[in-house]
């Protein structure tokens, strides 16, 4: 009887968990292990027979003779810091505004969320048109120098163009998470704070923020990982240019593996990329989780 029960449990687990586990193995685990192997080879990505084992040479080259990779790394760090701060601040302010008693707040929630629905490549081409044609027309009509800047033509303006589009796309999704957290705050606490004489700033700092730390943890994790992995906007807006001045880390890996046909070197960079993202994400979640415990 016990054997039948165990067999039945194994069958149930195989039926319900098996397909997902098989898909995860084929789609994620096997490519990851193959990428780990190819990071120690010299390979053009086309001929399996020409994958030559070279040991740690790819990693040595990255750390000693690949300034473009480290320039992309610095660019990505700078981009991540600014976009994470900007997207979360904007999302929180929108959430505060759209949880207040204002007309049309449901429609505004939909409008602010819509950019997240549009694919990154398509969104990038839309904003490329806005930067090159729309802003130029506005600048000619108004005479405002801000709109007459070559937004995708210089390293500085290209960087800020990417920041603007990423924050605009990401803030709506984070806003929904913050709205859910703010709505979940007991109204009694806010009413008690008001009765005790707390002003709106004090209510936000002393009541709201401590109670929505779990939502902040989630939003910081999502924006940090998405900003670090940003590729589609980079491809469609600037293609890493001018030159390689706005090349993100993900775009650098793509160019190395699929444009320069150095697949072994590209997978070595991708492995380092994975380790960096993992360390940053785990550290961020650990720090914010500690804050949750404290409050």
Structure characterization notes:
Helix 3 (67-98) packs parallel to helix 6 and helix 9 (213-228) runs antiparallel to helix 12. The protein is 78% helix and 1% strand. It has one domain: MetI-like fold (Orthogonal Bundle). The protein has a two-stranded antiparallel ribbon with strand order 1-2. The mean pLDDT is 87. By secondary structure, the protein is an all-alpha fold.
List keywords for this structure.
single chain, 295 residues, mainly alpha, MetI-like fold, two-stranded antiparallel sheet, 78% helix, globular
- Any idea of the CATH class? Mainly Alpha
Based on DSSP secondary structure assignment, what is the total number of beta strands? 2
The radius of gyration over CA amounts to 24 Å
CATH superfamily: MetI-like
* Average predicted local confidence, pLDDT: 87
> Sheet bearing the most strands, described?
2 strands, antiparallel
Looking at CATH, which topology would you report?
A: MetI-like fold
Give the uncertain stretches in residue-range form: none
């Amino acid at each position: 009887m016990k054997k039948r029960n165990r067999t039945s449990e194994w069958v149930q687990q195989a039926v319900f968990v098996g397909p997902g586990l098989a898909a995860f193995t084929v789609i994620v685990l096997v490519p990851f292990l193959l990428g780990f192997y190819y990071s120690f080879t010299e390979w053009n990505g086309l001929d399996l027979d020409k994958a030559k084992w070279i040991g740690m040479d790819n990693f040595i080259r990255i750390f000693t003779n690949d300034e473009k990779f480290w320039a992309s790394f610095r660019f990505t760090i700078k981009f991540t810091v600014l976009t994470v701060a900007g997207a979360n601040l904007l999302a929180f302010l929108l959430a505060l505004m759209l949880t207040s008693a204002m007309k049309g707040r449901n429609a505004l929630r939909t409008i602010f969320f819509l950019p997240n629905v549009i694919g990154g490549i398509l969104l990038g081409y839309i904003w490329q048109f806005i930067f090159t044609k729309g802003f130029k027309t506005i600048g000619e009509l108004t005479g405002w120098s801000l709109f007459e800047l070559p937004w995708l033509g210089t390293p500085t303006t290209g960087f800020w163009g990417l920041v603007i589009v990423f924050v605009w796309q990401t803030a709506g999704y984070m806003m929904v998470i913050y709205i859910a957290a703010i709505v979940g705050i007991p109204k009694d606490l806010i009413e008690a704070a008001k009765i005790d004489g707390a002003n709106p700033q004090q209510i936000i700092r002393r009541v709201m923020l401590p109670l929505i730390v779990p939502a902040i943890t989630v939003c910081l994790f999502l924006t940090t990982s998405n900003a670090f992995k940003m590729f589609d906007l980079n491809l469609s807006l600037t293609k890493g240019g001018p030159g390689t001045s706005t090349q993100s880390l993900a775009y650098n890996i793509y160019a190395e593996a699929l444009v320069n046909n150095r697949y072994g070197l590209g997978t070595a960079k991708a492995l380092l990329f994975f380790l960096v993202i993992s360390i940053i994400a785990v550290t961020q979640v650990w720090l914010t989780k500690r804050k949750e415990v404290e409050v």
